[in-house]
Predict the structure of Electron transfer flavoprotein alpha subunit.
Amino acid sequence: MSVLIFVETDEGALKKSAFEAVNYGAKVAQQLGTSATALALGAVNGGELEKLGNYGAAKVLHAADEKLNEPVIQAYASAIAQAAEQEGSQVVIFSKSSLSDGVASRVAARLQAGMAANVISLPETSGGFVVKRSIFTGKAFANSEITTEKKVLSLKKNTFAIEETGGSAAVEAFSPSLSDADFAVRVKGVEKATGDVLLPEAERVVSGGRGLKGPENWNLVEDLAKALGAATACSKPVSDADWRPHHEHVGQTGIKISPNLYIAIGISGAIQHLAGVNSSKVIVVINKDPEAPFFKAADYGIVGDAFEVVPKITEAVKALD
Ligand code: FAD
């Protein structure tokens, strides 16, 4: 018996969500009186997987087959389900992402496991197996019981603290048996989105709205984001007007994010925008209208003209280095 955690990588390095998921998985394993095994697929930089021992993994499986360097959903689902069977895993854990959204449900189907997505709590295991989930874009919670013997959980990102445990883990080679059918849909190429920091993964996000007047002023957002090591985002009308690419649009109809810091510049704070950002840990709002609704959701607010305020903040952040 074990708890299996699928860990995602980006260009060979573990994503932050991998550490979060392994930490969580180790706690679930402890609750169930078993151990946590992490699983990585495809190329991973040397020394990366060993780190997972310090976050609670007792063992790390690595399928280094180069065909798995591409994130092929069918093949990933097949490999993860085989690892779960090999390890006798009672619980399989993912961190929610565009990749795991496709993979986790397929793994659940293969294992005939019940699945819960957007999980935001450790399971309550006294009378069953109940997890709290964030639903309706964070406006409500559901307590969901999984009654099947095997369970698949997909965690809401940036929800759980990442703690070092001081442990170590052996990395073992894992060789799933994969057929051509597993690779029926191949990834032909991956184009990197703009910006150095990926928005769904970002711990800090600087976001701009219609208050910035036009795309020619986006250097304000980009300069502050660069100084903070943050990703850039925008409101819907901004991407609708092609000031910014659609993959930067956050909100009800865009990406949902929960960074540690969200800075909203010239964004009014409409409910549809808040739906995508209101689980950010700290929200800073810069708006020249003191009545802007966003101030009600803000931890810190600056009433002022973005064109005056933001360059000063950027300079102050740069001066910290
Ligand atoms: P505005 O509402 O025009 O606000 C601009 C703000 O900038 C104002 O508060 C103004 O005071 C401030 N400002 C102006 N000049 C300055 C200055 N110089 N300095 C500082 N502040 C300044 N929106 C989303 O963002 N994401 C979504 O996913 C989304 N989904 C939607 C789904 C539906 C079904 C619908 C109906 C709407 C959706 N919307 C969404 C749109 C949403 O309702 C708002 O219209 C939108 O969020 C407003 O964008 P904004 O704040 O950039 O622009």
Remarks:
- The CA atoms of residues 239 and 246 lie 5 Å apart.
- The mean pLDDT is 94.
